[in-house]
Design a protein that fits this description.
mainly alpha; globular
């Protein structure tokens, strides 16, 4: 898509629109003649910065279709559906979610009318329902989203098996996956397993039915295994979760077609990264670390290959300055016996390229620069993938108390992100994780500096796109609240963090409970250090209460946070001379840490030692 509308074409369309507006409707070639240029203009304006104008254009077209409140005639029904679809898309881009819902509801109804004569329109009806479900979830209306997703599954089951368009199995699998996500959103975790398992089984059948399944099927099976593993983990069924995650990795390995399969190796690296995170949350920290390490090794190889290909292209097709600097030395194609043909075929993975293709690059700077831009973009993608792998690896190492190695990974991730423009989200995450490690090494000024930079970057990003970046901004503010030596700066950051998390929690309580509880724990610590014991006790007690339910269901992910919250509560009670309450909280924290340490001593034994020390300090005299 172009960066913006073709304003010359838009002007032509406006001329047609104004001409029709100036005529009585009865004089138009057809009752909906005005809608054709309006729809074309709306499509032309479908660009960032122009969405509001596109919305107004689509609304005018819809008003024409709905003239005098009459039902849209059958001859124009499909065009009307397309206009509703376009308007819905523009409203989503504008984040006017409440307005999307009635538009998508009408699009679904119109599509069902069309399906009476063309069953392929069922796909459009199903897609409109899917968008409505996702919008309901975004608005925090999770019960409605789950009910609508359940109805979607029932409707699809009733649809004919041999209908034209998308295979029914694909549509059902998509709907089941969405239903599983919605069930998680309302805390119905056991039911989510059932929906996720059925979706995974559908994709597995498609995959097994073909000796060479297409990319769509293999990628959807990968997603389905990840969703199923996550659903098992949410319900505390860790062995089944591990089996799903392990199969996900093996499926990605089998899809690789040799050592030169860049795309297959990239998919494996991404899968390993995702699985590493999931395994860590499931208590499989050692396996998660192994997956993260393998992902980083792969990403290093792929980044080096991408850079090598870029360098080879620049060697084969040097710019004017490099050619002039060479004097009488061989340069560019002169370095190759065959004039660079075999090199070009290798660089572009195409044995059919010829001399004309080479000459177009050699003698047209615009074509050369376009290809060079493509090679540079591949380097950027590969290096930023390595950056993400490194900060995930650093997080895994930090969780296992291997802080020096974690710091090295974090520093490298930051250095890579700084090399690339428009990499602020990656840089902010790398800085945030590095700040956490620096704080554990008591390098407070460096930790605070990294956290401040992350907050600055994310504040700018969140101002432009709050839905995308506010959760990460809250994370960085949490980190700054912990690391800032100045207590006023720390309190300000912590309060901003809590305000964001509380708002996000109201929209998605089952997914955000752990983040808010963790922030409350550290807010309590900060308040206690300031001598504000009432505020400290309130935050600590709220944190413990918020952790109890998710920690009971998913101890591998939330048990450590729950134990930390209890230990913080114990220390606050003790500071206020409430020794009995402090001892009860410390005893519970020690019991939790003992259980966690048995499964993962590297991650928890140092916390257990501290908990026992706090418990000893609450002993009666």
């Amino acid at each position: 898509m172009a960066d913006g509308p073709d304003l010359r074409y838009a002007q032509v369309l406006m001329g047609k629109i104004e001409a029709l507006r100036g005529q009585p409707r009865e004089a138009w070639p057809s009752p909906c003649a005005l809608t054709e240029p309006l729809r074309s203009l709306g499509a032309e304006l479908d660009h960032p910065g122009w969405y509001e104008l596109a919305r107004l254009v689509h609304l005018e077209a819809i008003d024409v279709y709905r003239a005098d409140g009459a039902e849209v005639a059958g001859d124009f029904l499909d065009d009307y559906r397309r206009t509703l679809h376009s308007l819905g898309g523009v409203l989503v881009e504008l984040r006017r979610y409440e307005e999307v819902l009635p538009i998508k509801q009408e699009e679904q109804e119109v599509s069902l009318r069309l399906a009476v004569v063309d069953a392929s329109a069922l796909d459009e009806a199903n897609d409109a329902r899917t968008t409505s479900v996702r919008i309901l979830a975004r608005l925090g209306r999770h019960d409605e989203a789950a009910d609508s997703a359940a109805e979607a599954v029932r409707e699809i089951r009733r649809q004919p098996d041999g209908k034209p368009g998308r295979p029914k199995g694909y549509t059902l699998a998509y709907a089941l996956a969405l239903y599983a996500d919605c069930l998680t959103g309302v805390g119905r975790f056991d039911e989510a397993i059932g929906a996720a398992a059925e979706a995974e089984n559908i994709w597995r059948r498609y995959n097994d039915a073909d000796d060479e399944p297409d990319w769509l099927v293999t990628s959807r099976l990968d997603e389905a295994l990840g969703r199923l593993g996550g659903a098992f983990a949410q319900a505390g069924r860790y062995e089944e979760a591990y089996a799903a995650f392990a199969e996900r990795v093996e499926t990605a390995r089998r899809s690789i077609d040799g050592d030169d399969d860049f795309s297959g190796l990239r998919t494996l690296a991404v899968t390993l990264n995702n699985v590493a995170i999931a395994l860590g949350r499931s208590g499989r920290r050692r396996e998660g670390l192994a997956a993260a390490e393998e992902a980083v090794r792969l990403d290093r190889v792929l980044a080096a290959r991408a850079l090598d290909r870029q360098n080879r292209f620049e060697c084969l097709f040097p710019d004017v300055e490099a050619s002039l600097d060479a004097d009488d030395q061989p340069v560019g194609r002169e370095l190759f016996d065959d004039g660079g043909l075999s090199e070009v075929n290798d660089l572009f993975d195409d044995d059919e390229l010829d001399e004309e293709f080479i000459e177009n690059i050699e003698f047209d700077d615009e074509i050369r620069d376009e290809h060079l831009g493509d090679f540079r973009e591949k380097v950027r993608e590969a290096e930023l993938s390595l950056c993400a792998g490194l900060y995930n690896l650093g997080s895994d190492l930090h969780d296992l108390n291997r802080v020096e190695e974690a710091l090295a990974a974090g520093f490298e991730a930051v250095e890579i992100a700084r090399r690339h423009e428009d990499a602020a989200p990656r840089l902010a995450l790398a800085l945030n994780n590095t700040s956490c490690v620096l704080a554990d090494l008591n390098r407070q000024e460096e930790a605070a500096e990294a956290a401040r930079e992350a907050v600055t970057l994310l504040t700018t990003l969140a101002a432009a796109d709050p839905e995308e970046h506010e959760p990460t901004l809250a994370l960085a503010l949490h980190t700054l609240g912990v690391s800032a030596p100045d207590r006023e700066e720390a309190l300000s950051a912590s309060l901003r963090c809590l305000a964001i998390y509380r708002r996000l929690y109201r929209l998605d309580p089952h997914r955000l409970a752990g983040d808010l509880a963790h922030a409350l724990t550290d807010h309590g610590v900060l308040r206690s250090r300031r001598g504000e014991h009432a505020e400290a006790l309130a935050a600590a007690a709220e944190s413990v209460a918020m952790y109890r339910r998710p920690a009971a269901r998913h101890p591998a992910r939330y048990g450590g946070g729950h134990a930390s919250a209890l230990l913080n509560l114990a220390e606050i009670h003790s500071a206020a001379s409430s020794l009995a309450e402090g001892r009860a909280a410390a005893e519970e924290a020690v019991a939790l840490y003992e259980s966690l340490t048995a499964d993962s001593p590297e991650a928890h034994e140092h916390h257990l030692a501290r908990a026992r020390s706090v418990l000893a300090g609450t002993a009666p005299f």
